[in-house]
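Quick start: what a row looks like.
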Amino acid sequence: MDLPKGRTDQIFRLKKSNSYAKFHKRGTIVSKKKRPRPEDLNLPCVGVDTHAHLDLDPLHSEVEACLDRAGKSGVAAVGNVFLGSRAYSVNRELFSTHPRVFFILGVHPHEASIVDSTELDAINQALDQDPNIKAIGEIGLDFHWDRSPRDRQRSAFQAQLDLARDRNKPVVIHSREAEEETLDILLDMGFQDRPLLWHCFGGDSSLAEQILARGWMVSIPGTVTFPKSRALQEAVRGIPLQQMVLETDCPFLAPEPYRSKRNEPAYSVFTAQKIAEERQEPLTDIWEQTGQTAREFFGLDDAK
């Protein structure tokens, strides 16, 4: 995901934007264009949205309704990504009655300047106290926006990789226009064949092959449904389902047919539908296998 410059934890007010207000009112999409509902695909409740930001506005106030719609659409589990220890401590109680929401905790490269001994200690303490934190992330490098100095991004990334290794936790990677250096750091730090998920994968077959060859996973977002995402569409045809999971990155990156609208976990079904179309495989197979891959990667209780 991309964060606005200067954002600290939960101050991103997407709902104040004109585009959001135009299309949404109390969680209901208002549009003259009739769109298919995710529940109409009638998928079994085994899917996993591996990457969501339900604690960010505008979803923060709609957690109950969002998760209800997700369940009705076949989403059995959702990974909520907390962007730093403060976001975790303030918002974890939003999910106290939702056992199917698991947690991912880490500091985004945009906020690399907050990664110091105090922040790392707070994340470590959270890991000690909460077994529902299944991975460290999203961490990495973002040279597209460069909202933190690159040297700070590198040091924050490496410090959190050290933490993940020490705690034997999977890692969720954010890398934008920094793929080569991200790979170099991961390999230099001995992460080949360790549990690692490349979040919001948007690359081509060549990048996918480099990631897969190291024993890592890729997470496919809703952008695969966009007409111009031809390289990504080609890449998903060759990624083994045992190394592929789905994500929304909500409230961002809504897939077709809800592109440019607020995203939510239920819409992951449309990402699966596009992947099935590209691979010429049954939608239910894509849905079930990516869900199982996610459960195994994150060590969810119902993994077979």
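That is the whole record. The longest strand covers residues 133-142. The chain has one domain: 39-298.
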